[in-house]
Amino acid sequence: MAYNRILTIQDISCVGQCSLTVALPILSACGQETAILPSAVLSTHTGGFTGYTFRDLTDDMPAIEAHWAQQGIDFAAIYTGYLGSERQIDIVTDIAHKLLKPGAPFIVDPAMADNGALYPGFDDAFVKAMARLAFSADVILPNITEAAMLTGVEYRAVYDRAYIDGLLAALTEKGARTIVLTGVSYEANHTGVVVFEHGEYTYYEHEKIAQGAHGTGDVYSSAFVGCVMNGHSVIESARIAADFTVRCIKRTVADDGHWYGPEFEPELGWLIEQLKA
Can you list the alpha helix ranges (DSSP code H) found in 30-160? Predict the structure, then answer.
């Protein structure tokens, strides 16, 4: 497996199996040196927990970037997840401009919305800032809600292939290069991932599991990045990441007491084996 230094930028929810506590172990298991830039520290994630602590680390991010630059540290890929503010997006943009190796991939998961609605605390100004970041990336991994918001296309909970084609066209017109559109479901019992690259549409369909878990999007994106950085194509990486995520969800659903996050750790061995294939 190729060995690279990857930077991932997102928050740390200390308990809850999402964001950096997912990205770091998955990328490391994929054989990648994984540097992190935490945007915030929370005692738990916000999905179902109450009374959690939160510390914003935005003010620390520029000094960390400056130290890396002074030390000559750069990265073979940058992968971003949940970012909490427009200012953080601006800092990430600057880091990608200054510390990403020439020709290295910049991969953005525009984590800001789902099921037709923005996450709490976000507004139209944040969407515009995220659009600037996403359309500067080499690869974006939006869900349907995020794709609609990034482009100004009306969100539809019920849709057909023509609607998805329209979303892809709108994303491309805005500047998207390679698109991995997640959560695309054309029939009740299945869902899947659309890859749109070099004008080519590919759909990978898999089983749809009604019960999910907070953090499964982070599992998917992290596995995708790990596969790409091991030389797999975007389409193959999208497929492996989807299968890995399904395995994690199935394991989680089977454990009645584990409601707060995906049980991804026991499936890391399976993911590593796919990278060797």
Answer: 61-70, 86-99, 124-134, 144-151
